[in-house]
Amino acid sequence: MGNFVLKPRYAVVRMLSIVSVIFGYVTDFLFPFNSSTMIGETTFPLDLVRRRKQLEGAGGRAPVYTTGLFGIFKQIYQTEGFRGLYRGIMPEYYKVVPGVGICFMTYETLKLFLADVTPKL
């Protein structure tokens, strides 16, 4: 009769542990989402200017930007508006967010597995 009482408790504990593991994987994947989007929003205009400067004159085209960094920012803002500084940010998110999430999730998972192995060595 004692085993009968323990089985439901064991099942509940096991189910809670499975839920916590799944929740851990989800949080390990989603929390880097916040950091990568915030970093992307702050650094994307500078990356946009860098890419445009690299492509300037490619394929025999005439140079478009003749001023320095701040002049290019000013020209983009005047010709395309504020949204022009963030043109193409969604494809960047499609690339960066899953990569960062997978990287952090893999790190946390390996940290858990190796923490169990390390004391035995």
TrEMBL record:
It comes from the Eukaryota. The chain crosses the membrane at residues 12-31. Signal peptide: none annotated. It holds the Pfam family Mito_carr. It is found in: Membrane. Keywords: Membrane, Repeat, Transmembrane, Transmembrane helix, Transport. Solcar repeats lie at residues 27-113. One of its GO terms (cellular component) is membrane. InterPro entries: MCP_dom_sf, MCP_transmembrane. It is a multi-pass membrane protein. Belongs to the mitochondrial carrier (TC 2.A.29) family. This is ADP,ATP carrier protein.
